[in-house]
Amino acid sequence: MADPCRRSILSQLIDSEETTVTINTLLDHISPENPPPKTTATHADSLPIDVHHIHLPTLEDVNLIEYNPHTMMIRYNPNERVERMLRFVTEELE
Questions:
Q1: What is the arithmetic mean of pLDDT over 71-93?
Q2: Which long-range contacts (CB under 8 A, 24 or more apart) does 24-32 make?
Q3: What is the phi/psi pair of residue 58, to 5°?
Q4: For the stretch 29-64, what's the b/e string if a residue is b when 16 or more beta carbons lie within 10 angstroms of its beta carbon?
Q5: What is the pTM for the complete model shown?
Q6: Is the pLDDT of residue 92 over 90?
Q7: Which of 36, 65, 67, 79 could link 56 by a cystine bridge, Cβ 3.0 to 4.6 Å?
Q8: What is the pLDDT at residue 56?
Q9: In a 10 Å sphere around its CB, with 0-12 CB exposed, 13-18 middle and 19+ buried, how is residue 86 labelled?
């Protein structure tokens, strides 16, 4: 929950009417927030790479999503506790 990009990913997945989404669909709805320091490319250019190699695997490691890197399909694993926390963070702290 500390990372704004992961919060954005989870929000998009929770709000999606689809059970699975492609990484491209997800990327269309994520804004490039909080660019990393000292980057050679623009954050918008590095966002797809970061999402694919960092954010989605991290969310999968904690069992919040299922991610198939070959098909680039993502499925959210519903978690009421995480959803309540995400609502609190986005409504009260952002």
A1: 93
A2: 24/72, 26/51, 26/74, 27/51, 30/5
A3: -65, -45
A4: ebeeeeeeeeeeeeeeebbeeebeeebbeebbeeeb
A5: 0.82
A6: no
A7: 67
A8: 97
A9: middle
Which amino acid, one-letter code, is at 75? R
pLDDT in tens, 20-69: 999 999 998 886 554 444 444 555 578 899 999 999 999 999 999 999 99
Phi-psi region of 20 (alpha: psi -120 to 50; beta: other; left: phi over 0): beta
Nearest CA among 65, 53, 58 for reference residue 21: 65
Taking the C-alpha atoms of residue 78 and residue 63, their distance in angstroms, rounded to an integer, is 10
pLDDT at res. 81: 96
Structure-token pair, residue 40: 């050679």
Measure the CA–CA gap between 87 and 39, rounded to whole angstroms.
Answer: 31
